[in-house]
TrEMBL record:
Protein name as it appears in the record: HD-like signal output (HDOD) domain, no enzymatic activity
Pfam family, one: HDOD
InterPro entries membership: HD/PDEase_dom, HDOD, RNase_Y/CdgJ
Organism: Desulfofustis glycolicus DSM 9705
Domain of life: Bacteria
Phylogenetic classification of the source organism: Bacteria, Pseudomonadati, Thermodesulfobacteriota, Desulfobulbia, Desulfobulbales
Ranges for domain HDOD: 17-212
UniProt-listed Gene3D superfamilies: Hypothetical protein af1432
Length: 297
């Protein structure tokens, strides 16, 4: 049993991470102001050519399926909207921050990035199923395990990527993580987003995606990411699970999930799980380039 807290080491690591680019804070201010115009947003992004290129590439990706090519940043803002542009900017900045650790530990982290991206897609799909604005949920899903990257940077070989990055997080595993490191990746991830001044909804989604019952009024965000996390892990199974297997795995790994879902009066039909998983499999093919776009220079 660990007797000394490792929390100060993690806090120090988070403080050492570079701040997000000025573009990010400007975009967040502009998109939060109802009086802002598309021109205001364009002026904030134009000086950052890497960000402009990222937005245009994503706007023209198969994931969005635009029949007509988006040729300018102005057009992208009009087509995608303020919220989607903000989420692309946030995702690009967050992924870029950890780009170097991926280059130096590629073999260990390939599965991590694949899971993170798949979870983002799954969260987007679940949100659309619920009739919610999906862009913010994609970012929540994409970043849901970023606390693990901060813990890997802090504890190096003591935080075993082969264990913590590939297995689905159960209540038992979460307790073990806290016992060994004085905290959990969910708590570290929420602190990271707070350090970056991300919206409270995203911070809450990361903090409680394994414990939605503690999320208070923001439980809906946590439930969406929790289900997305589960679906993403199922995509990594050696054989594609059928509907029965999906239900058994959900009951085994997240006991009481459906009770929490029903308590929120969220729609759930007999075929919902199978439907969402099939939808994810399709989007995963269409969106395979998105992560590379976000991580590119």
């Amino acid at each position: 049993m660990m007797t000394t807290s490792r929390q100060p080491s993690i806090d120090k690591q988070l403080e050492a991470l570079p701040p997000l680019p000025l573009t990010v804070s400007q975009v967040m201010q502009i998109t939060a102001d109802p009086l802002s115009s598309a021109n205001d947003l364009m002026k904030a992004i134009l000086p950052d050519q890497a960000m402009c290129l990222t937005i245009l590439k994503i706007a023209n990706s198969a994931l969005y399926g635009r029949p007509k090519k988006v040729a300018s940043l102005e057009s992208a803002i009009v087509v995608l909207g303020f919220d989607e542009i903000r989420n692309i900017v946030l995702g690009k900045a967050a992924v870029t921050t950890f780009r170097n650790i991926f280059k130096t530990r590629r073999a260990e982290l390939e599965k991590f990035w694949d899971h993170a991206f798949t979870c983002g897609l799954a969260a987007r799909i679940v949100a659309e199923h619920l009739g919610l604005q999906s862009g913010q949920f994609f970012i929540a899903g994409l970043l849901h395990d970023f606390g693990k990257l901060a813990m890997l940077l802090t504890f190096e070989n003591r935080y075993d990527a082969n264990r913590w990055f590939t297995e689905i997080t159960t209540t038992t595993q979460l307790a073990r993580e806290r016992e060994l490191f004085s905290t959990t990746h969910a708590e570290v991830g929420s602190k990271l987003l707070h350090h970056w001044q991300f919206p409270d909804t995203l911070i809450s989604a990361l903090r409680y995606h394994h414990t939605p019952g503690q999320a208070g009024k923001m439980i809906g965000y946590a439930l969406v990411v929790q289900l997305a996390d589960f679906l993403a892990h199922c995509c990594a199974l050696p054989e594609r699970p059928d509907d029965r297997a999906l239900k058994e795995l959900l009951d085994l790994n997240i006991p009481g999930f459906l009770d929490s879902w029903h308590e929120r009066n969220l729609p759930w039909e007999e075929m919902t799980l199978e439907y969402l998983f099939a939808w994810l499999a399709v989007d995963r093919k269409h969106g395979s380039s998105i992560l590379d776009i976000l991580a590119s220079s």
